[in-house]
Design brief:
The structure is a single chain. By secondary structure, the protein is an alpha+beta fold. The chain has one domain (3-83): Structural Genomics Hypothetical 15.5 Kd Protein In mrcA-pckA Intergenic Region, Chain A, CATH 3.10.290. 18% of the residues lie in helices and 30% in strands. The protein has helices at residues 3-9, 16-24; strands at residues 28-30, 33-34, 46-51, 54-60, 76-83. Strands 2-1-3-4-5 form a 5-stranded antiparallel sheet. Helix 1 crosses helix 2. Belongs to the RqcP family.
Amino acid sequence: MRIDKFLKVARLIKRRTVAKEVAGAGRLQVNGQVAKAGTEVKAGDEVTIRYGRKIVKVRVETLENAAQKGEASSLYTTLEETKVDDE
């Protein structure tokens, strides 16, 4: 599954277009490599997302084409959340 779709379905990012923008800005990594919006992810991959001053690292648990609000968080496990100071 494409990373932009996974982020939207998992509700880590609200809209797929925003996920594409995040990837285009180089703020998205899959297994430590900078990812494009079309990068494929699979169960077990580690995804790092930089939101402004916060960095979130998650592990992909399962891939679904759609998920209800209550089920979305079961698609991933949060490994780490860190705040970033201004550089």
